[in-house]
Design goal:
Blueprint lengths: L20 H4 L4 H19 L11 H16 L21 H6 L2 E6 L9 E6 L4 E6 L5 H8 L3 E3 L7 E3 H8 L2 H14 L4 E7 L1 H16 L1 H6 E6 L7 H10 L3 E6 L20 E4 L11 E4 L16 H4 L18
Parallel strand pairs: 3-6, 6-7, 7-8, 8-9
Antiparallel strand pairs: 1-2, 2-3, 4-5, 9-10
C-alpha cells in the first residue's frame, strides 16, 4: 500500500513504489538490498521532518475511531475474553456501538504463561468487520511486560529493534492468533480486517499488524490498525518499516496522556506515523479537536506535551479502560 510522504521544504512526493509491498515482501537478494536502501531513504526523508499535512478529519473517520475505541474498551471486560460464541458486551455501557452491532467472539484468549496477553477475535456482521482486539495493562504480568524496556532484534525487518516486553507478549500468542485469524478471514472474505487496542493492547496491535501485513500482499492491503494511547514500540528502523507497510494505520493519542511518551525518546524509541492527536474534548472530540501529525518523533503532537495526567490515558471517546462501576482498571 503506497504512502504519500510530505516534505517540509519541498513539494516532491516519494514514489509509491518505494513503500510497495512488492519490495517489502521480496525474497530475492537483490531486491532485499534494494528494500533496505529504500528503508534508509524513507527514514531520511520522513524521520527528521515534522511536516503536518492536511489530512481531513471527517465525520466518517471520527465514527471509525469511536467504534474502534469501544472495541478496545470491550477488551477490558473479562466476559469477552474467556469464552467463544458470546456477544461482545460492556457491563458499564461504554461500548454501545459494539453491542448494537451484536458482534460475537469467535476466539478469545487470556492468562498466557508469561505476559497474560488478553483479548478477543470478533465477527461484526453489521459493520462487516473482523476485529482483533487486545487488552491494555490489567495484571502484574502485564506490568512486567511494560517495564521490560530492553530493546531486542525483531524478525520483521533488518536492523529493527523492538521493546522486548511487547514483542514477547505478542509472540507468545502469535501462532495461535494467526491461525484463527486466517481461518476467519477465509470464512468472511468481504469483511474488513481490523486490529485495535489501548495502551499495552495498542503496542501489541501494532506488532500484530506488522506481522499480518508481512505475510502476503492481500493482508498488507486488507489489515487496518487503530490504536489508542499506545506506547512507543521500537527504534527508527522498526517504526519506519511499520509505517511504510500501509496507509491504513491510525495511531490516536490524547492531550497530555503520558503513556505515548514512553519508553523515552532518549532510549532510542520512536513512534509509527502518522499520529492523530486529540488536543481538546477527549471524551467526544470533533473534527477541529484532532490534529494530524507526521514523523517518528514530532513535538507538534503528544510528544510535545510535558504534563503527567493519567486520567487522559483512560479517556478516548469515553472511558476506555473501565469495565466495572466500582473503579477503573490500572492500565
Amino acid at each position: 500500500m503506497a504512502i504519500a510522504i510530505c516534505l517540509c521544504f519541498a513539494t516532491a512526493i516519494l514514489s509509491s513504489s518505494i513503500a510497495s509491498s512488492h519490495w517489502m515482501n521480496s525474497r530475492d537478494n537483490g531486491k532485499s538490498h534494494m528494500k533496505h536502501h529504500c528503508l534508509h531513504f524513507f527514514i531520511l526523508l520522513f524521520g527528521f521532518g515534522s511536516c503536518v499535512v492536511g489530512h481531513e478529519i471527517t465525520g466518517e473517520l471520527l465514527q471509525r475511531f469511536n467504534l474502534m475505541a469501544q472495541y478496545s474498551a470491550a477488551a477490558y471486560c473479562p466476559g469477552n475474553n474467556n469464552g467463544t460464541g458470546t456477544l461482545i458486551t460492556c457491563s458499564i455501557g461504554n461500548c454501545p456501538l459494539v453491542e448494537a452491532a451484536r458482534a460475537r467472539g469467535t476466539f478469545e484468549f487470556e492468562d498466557t504463561i508469561w505476559a497474560d496477553s488478553t483479548g478477543f477475535l470478533a465477527v461484526d456482521d453489521t459493520n462487516r468487520l473482523i476485529v482483533l482486539a487486545f487488552r491494555g495493562s490489567e495484571s502484574l504480568s502485564n506490568w512486567k511486560v511494560d517495564l521490560d524496556m530492553i530493546r531486542r532484534p525483531a524478525d520483521l525487518c533488518r536492523d529493527c529493534d523492538v521493546h522486548r516486553g511487547f514483542w514477547h507478549a505478542w509472540t507468545e500468542i502469535r501462532e495461535q492468533v494467526t491461525t484463527r485469524v486466517l481461518s476467519v478471514l477465509e470464512t468472511y472474505p468481504e469483511h474488513r480486517y481490523v486490529i485495535t487496542g489501548h495502551s499495552l493492547g495498542g503496542a501489541m496491535a501494532i506488532l500484530a499488524a506488522g506481522d499480518f501485513r508481512k505475510l502476503n500482499d492481500d493482508l498488507a492491503a486488507r489489515t487496518e490498525l487503530y490504536t489508542f494511547g499506545s506506547p512507543r514500540v521500537g527504534n527508527r528502523y522498526m517504526v519506519a518499516f511499520l509505517t511504510a507497510q500501509s496507509d491504513l494505520s491510525f495511531r490516536v493519542t490524547s492531550m497530555s496522556d503520558p503513556v505515548p511518551r514512553e519508553p523515552g525518546h532518549i532510549l532510542g524509541y520512536e513512534h509509527t506515523s502518522p499520529e492523530f492527536w486529540i488536543h481538546d474534548h477527549p471524551q467526544n472530540p470533533g473534527p477541529n479537536d484532532i490534529k494530524f501529525v507526521t514523523g517518528f518523533y514530532n513535538e507538534d503532537g503528544n510528544s510535545g506535551e510535558h504534563g503527567f495526567n493519567i486520567s487522559r490515558h483512560k479517556e478516548y471517546f469515553g472511558p476506555i479502560s473501565k469495565c466495572w462501576t466500582d473503579g477503573e482498571s490500572s492500565a
